[in-house]
Amino acid sequence: MTLAELQQQLEARAKLLNDAGLKERLAIVASNEVSAAVKRRVFGDGIAQDGSQIGSYSTTPARFSISTPGLPKQYPKSKPHSTRAKKTYYSESGYKGFRNAVGRQNQKVDLNLSGATFQGVGTGVAPSGVPAFGIRTKEALQRIEGNEERFNCVTVTPNELERKAGIEAALRELKFILNID
After folding, report:
1. Where are the alpha helices (H) located in the chain, listed in sequence order?
2. Where does 56-159 have alpha helices with state H?
3. CB contact burial 111-129 (16+ within 10 A = b; e otherwise)
4. What is the pLDDT of residues 48-84, one digit of tens each?
5. Cα separations (Å) of 94 from 25, 62, 108, 116, 154?
6. DSSP character for 7?
7. Is 61 exposed, middle or buried (0-12, 13-18, 19+ CB in 10 A)?
8. What are phi and psi of 119, to 5 degrees?
């Protein structure tokens, strides 16, 4: 490589580094990596931020609304003369039984029944205007805070490995952009 070719290559890389969209692109890559890792850990594996199981589902008999959006309709097992018979599902085995009845796993808490919380967590735009991982809606925030209080653990806050994975993904993307092996 000649000195002129090297200079041209360095100038091209400097131009890329000064590109206004580079910071945003790297932030998107990093936040998507963190989002995927957190969602897999929480909503797939049922693991809290500290590596412990989030919890276990209740087996105390209870009634559940049959009008939850996103769930198949379950006809109630309520007593025929009950005024709640058409609006609720009675589960003798509690929430664990209700989850089983609607076709969801019930061996570990995974905070994923209708998918609303899963959809409310992910990449968005931070107040600074840069893409970032976080909780997108107030409703999702309320559900997450309630579950964290109920199960006494931190759930969707990224752990150190997830943060490092985001940084590594951004570095891989930068190397790709700059054509560095």
Report:
1. 3-17, 20-39, 94-101, 116-119, 138-151, 160-178
2. 94-101, 116-119, 138-151
3. bbbeeebbebbbbeeeeee
4. 999 999 999 999 998 887 776 655 565 555 555 555 5
5. 46, 5, 14, 21, 24
6. H
7. exposed
8. -70, -25
Q: What is the DSSP letter of 30?
A: H
- Residue 34 to residue 39: CA distance in whole angstroms: 8
67 contacts 116 by C-beta, under 8 angstroms: no
- Cα 155 to Cα 42: distance, rounded to the nearest angstrom: 7
User: CA geometry: angle at 140 spanning 136 and 143, to 5°?
Assistant: 160
Quote the pLDDT of residue 77: 56
Q: Which residues contact 116 (CB under 8 A, 6 or more apart)?
A: 69, 70, 139, 140, 143
How much of the chain exceeds pLDDT 70, in percent? 90
